[in-house]
Task: structure prediction
Amino acid sequence: MNSTLERVWDELERRRDELSGLVADLVRRPSLLGQEAEAQAYVADYLRGVGLEPDVWDLSPSVLDLPNAGNSGVPFDGRPNVAAVLRGTGGGRSLVLNGHIDVVSPEPVEAWTHDPWGAGIVGNRMYGRGACDMKSGLAINLFLAKVFRDLGIDLKGDLILQSVIEEECTGNGALDASRRYPADAAIVTEPTDGDITQAHVGVIWFRVHITGRAAHAAVAPTGVNAIVKAVPIIQALQDLDRRMNEDRHPAFADLDHPINLNIGVIRGGDWPSSVPGACELHCRLSFYPGQTVEEIRREVEEAIQQAAAGDEWLSEHPPTVSYDGFQSAGSVVPKDAPPVQMLVSWHKKLRGNEPRFLARTGTNDMRYYNFLGIPACCYGPSGGNLHAADEWLDLDSLVPTAKVLAAFICDWCGLAD
Ligand SMILES: [Zn+2]
Result:
């Protein structure tokens, strides 16, 4: 095994520019929600170039009925998931390398000093939306398959590559891919700066619809201002955030404020001289692994009901709650799970430090594998300004990350004789 690993590592060092070129090719194909087709076609072509037969499939609408699915509101047609299997010779453990193709909006673009779709390089940084989160990790996954093929290295277990949609809004892509390709372990190569994401929160999005009564502002007391009626609701939700942070999940014990309720959007009224008759809050709430979406929805609805009960108008015109986007529980993988331990040991051997176990206050796709009993964590490269202006990838982190993953793959899946 050692001589094979040396060959892979040398090849990765030698082909560093090819790997960063692959990241750039992906960054230059914008893949916002609903616009993933071109980037996914590129991924499928790349896999064909590796000599694999990519599985390119649109999600079925029935995915929306599964537990922990969410609804982005965008139909699935023409924006496929892509996967391919580097078939093992048999007798080894299988592994999923997963990455998401979707990126969040670069807006406001004026805040960028680089082209968000340009993949421009300055020093050891590549700039662009998705350069770090997570076209870097996705490129590493694809590139590793290519390098194994080019070197004629056969694994015993199957290596399954997945490029999925909707990580940033629902997780439906990984939800579907995890069920389609059972495996013995999974690594999501999100940018973790060489640490290991071991736990992450669940997330729901919800809307609160508040009804008032429209009137001319000149006779405002004859109306009911729906924006003003949102105030006690907002306070109740902030109280819920505070209460939820009083409990501490052990994996999150070191964090100050792991649970976050965010009032992300408020829409109400349309004219300064009209009392608004309607107001809507669009919110995001996280919660600890082990709690279910249904439990958290109940908590939200109860908090809103209680606030409404203290207000004469709202008690007679109770706000309603609806759900869209993320509707998924969180997950934890045990630190002593065999693939996690193996990843830690290769990281230490190659990079010389002990990786930290991260508990993330945002969600990621590893959960769907853990829900199925497939131990999964995140491990990936470094960078900054994720979901912000001038997102960048530390190009120097690509090859070291790929080397750890290559060693892990050989060890986990086994090398054919
Ligand atoms: Zn990501």
Q: What stands out?
A: The chain has eleven helices and 19 strands. The mean pLDDT is 97. The pocket of zinc ion is lined by residues 100, 133-134, 167, 190 (CB under 6 Å).
